[in-house]
Design goal:
277 residues; mainly beta; 2 domains; 9-stranded mixed sheet; 5 helices; 14% helix; binds zinc ion
Length: 277
Amino acid sequence: MFDTLRVMTSKRQGIPASLKRRLRQHHNFTCAMCPSPIYDYEHIDGYASTGHRFEDMTLLCPRHHREKTAGRLPASLVRKYRNQPYSTRRAATGGHPTHFAGPSQFMLIGDLTFETAGENRAVGLADQGEVILGIRVENGAPLIEIDLRDEANRPLLIVRSGELRFMSASWDITVEGQRITIWSEPETKALVLDLNPPNEIRVPHADFWHAGIHVRAGTASGYGGVQLRDAGESGHASFSGGTWIGGHFDIRDSKNVRPDAFFVISNVSATFRGPGL
Ligand SMILES: [Zn+2]
């Protein structure tokens, strides 16, 4: 009698972090039934009957969660998808739109602030003019561009023209409110990204690779700024602070450096351009 009472009145325990991560990996970081990267942890037959058990849990986006709660989506179909989740066989998830608008946009990478100025300007970090962590403005519309890779050049997160795509090479991805965190491996965060629409993006932590260049920023750089280093450790550059208006840092040299590139690094040496350097 007392045991029964205790079970009935005991508080539901939180879902262990390791179980949540296993579920995220199993579903390739989206809803079991669609490409939405925003989801809840769902007990298919109810927490009371199964408790927190990997085999009996799934991820459902708010829409599919609502349908199941309302009885329009049967548990049997959810279970079928849970065993073969929508995104698991795909190398990348579908695109999820972000909601940025207006001509004035701010990209904060570590303690550096990049500000857009006018049309066809790219701000942030670029590789030969192609933005890899930043914003470009096209016909008055701001478009986020991110190409995040690990040391083996496997894509971890791709944001192309403002659409988020999570890549299966990531060890873990969490979305909590406005913050997206990408792990390249246990204990290593490749990116912490705060989306503050309509006009601000913050990167308080970055530790990724692009075309043989190791990029570290914010808490990953050791001093809060941006640090670039090539694989052979022969070329490197460090920046801290400042507001950079209407231009970008280009991490690799090219024959035709765009006029809005403030800074260029080649494999062996750094070249400095633009104001403030
Ligand atoms: Zn869904």
